[in-house]
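Protocol step 4 of 5: obtain the predicted structure for the target chain.
Materials: sequence only (see below). No template structures provided, no constraints applied. The aim of this step is simply to have a reference model before the mutagenesis design in step 5. Sequence pasted as it appears in the construct record:
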Amino acid sequence: MVQNVVYLIVCLCFLSIVKKDIKEKIIPNKHCIFLLILGLVLGEIDSNITKKILGACVYAAPFMLIYGYGSDFLGKECLGFGDVKLAFSIGSLIGFQGLYQVLVYLNLTFIGATIFYIIYYVLKKEKIKEIALGPFLIFAYIYQSVDGFYV
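Step 4 output (structure tokens):
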């Protein structure tokens, strides 16, 4: 029962993040912290808080590398730090299940964003300067949750 309430709150938080990220290209810190706390609450309920903390670190690591080194190599910001914090928070919701799930999550996120960019470019005939990555991070989490990865 408590888990269902927590997941309902997570969904509402996700909707707020998607709306704000698409509109303003900002992921609010308070939402990320709230999701992190909810992930730890779920870890305490399931008595696997260690997996939740490890998941937060593992899921955020590739985004941290892209944030740090991508800007150095390309000379401009590749992704915002809000995306890194959101990946950290989503990692706390997921927990560490293995590297396979992390790779699937990363692929879903970046392939989804790439397909969106291509479709947008074909339909509108204009380039997008910035893509809101938050919705794709959330979409990958929801897809894997529905698909049964995190059972």
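Step 4 remarks: The chain has six helices and no strands. Residues 15 and 22 are 11 Å apart (CA to CA).
Proceed to step 5.
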